[in-house]
Amino acid sequence: MLGPTANVIFAVLLTAAVGIWLRRHLHRRDWPIAAAFLVAVALTGFFGFRLVDRALYWTNPAHQHQAPQPWMTVGFLARSWHLPPPELAQAIGITDGSMRGLRLSEIAEVQGIPIEALIDTLNDRLAQERTRADGPDEPGATSPP
């Protein structure tokens, strides 16, 4: 992901280009409407760029099914594995949103356990998810709900 700075730069450049065009083609009495239009262009550019940036990041196969690392958050890991973040948080003993946004290393520190133990727990849960996603091994077998 390019980040919020790139979003702002894109929105400013797009707004400046539209503003230059509007300045050459509008009369003074039309400027209030033009200003509202420029704000709409800036917001559309900002959020549109953000949408495309995130879509490109998460569709890259290198960012899917990543192994847990201490710098990751539960939300990042959940998106990587296409799981709901509360489900993955529950696997490591978080039942409320109190640790939202904390890195795995910070969660392990708060829980008073080594980061390796937390990562092992996550690896076990993700291995279950991988087994469930792969489906049954035998053609006539069904997987548990």
From TrEMBL:
Annotated membrane-spanning segments are 6-22, 34-52
Keyword line: Membrane, Transmembrane, Transmembrane helix
Q: What is this protein called?
A: Uncharacterized protein
Recorded source organism is Paracoccus tegillarcae
